[in-house]
Amino acid sequence: IVVLLCAVITVLLGWQATRLQLNASFEKTIPAAHPYIRNFLAHQAELSGLGNTVRIVVANPQGSIYDAKYLDALRRLSDEVFLLPGVARMQMKSLWTPSTRWVGVTEDGLEGGPVIPDAYDGSPASLERLRANIERSGELGQLVALDGRSSVIFVPLLAKGSDGQALDYGAFARRLDDLRVKYERETLSLHITGFAKIVGDLIDGVHVVLLFFAVAVAIATAAVFWF
């Protein structure tokens, strides 16, 4: 009877284990009781785009960002990241987003516009205009590296998607890795950092640990029965 009960419990718990989903929450990793964090959470609606973010650094190992081929790849990557589930699209920022603008003071008053010129066509003249726009935008050292060899795609994340489900960090990190592989084939170098990427890598590691655990249990069971 004891062995039968143990077998039934093992089967039930094993079935429940197959329904477990590995995920994480950004809010669970910060000290929610701290006055600063409580104040941040109270005004989170007005501070959207801060906190849980991913930064994708896109470097050009063979030159600078003022290269038509690099900028075309950056545009396509920015568009693909924009469409990923869980991205706060209104706050996302890269050289190709309309929110990245320059402002200049002239004798006629203030002038401004998007950093990427409206008439950009990849020609040397438009690349020089882009260089001037970036210098006037104040993005050097922020979206653009000081040496001009890389730029950042700033990706704020939502806690829940449009379907109301919590963001699946594991799936999100895998999508980022797929994009990394795809664009590194074009001689670019991608560096990704942020809570979502770290947790996604940890989830992948946990899957490997669980597989190791299952193999260890099988070996131990076989050894006991053989004995």
Description:
Helices cover 44% and strands 14% of the residues. By secondary structure, the chain is α+β, with helices and mostly antiparallel strands. The chain starts with a helix and ends with a helix. The strands form two sheets. It has a three-stranded antiparallel beta sheet. It has a two-stranded antiparallel ribbon with strand order 2-3. It has helices at residues 2-17, 35-42, 68-82, 124-137, 169-184, 195-226, and strands spanning 53-59, 101-106, 109-114, 150-156, 189-194. The mean pLDDT is 87.
Report the major sheet. Answer: 3 strands, antiparallel
Q: Which residue ranges are poorly predicted, with pLDDT under 50 across at least 5 consecutive positions?
A: none
Mean pLDDT: 87
Tell how many strands the DSSP assignment holds.
5
What is the percent of helical residues?
Answer: 40-55%
The termini sit apart by 23 Å
Kindly name the structural category: alpha+beta
- Based on Cα principal axes, name the global outline: elongated
Radius of gyration: 24 Å
Physical arrangement of strands within the biggest beta sheet:
4-1-5
Order of helices and strands: HHEHEEHEHEH
The count of helical stretches stands at 6
Tell me the fraction of residues in β-strands, as a range. Answer: 5-15%
Write the layout of secondary structure elements.
Layout: H1 2-17, H2 35-42, E1 53-59, H3 68-82, E2 101-106, E3 109-114, H4 124-137, E4 150-156, H5 169-184, E5 189-194, H6 195-226
Antiparallel strand pairs: 1-4, 1-5, 2-3
Helix pairs in contact: 5-6
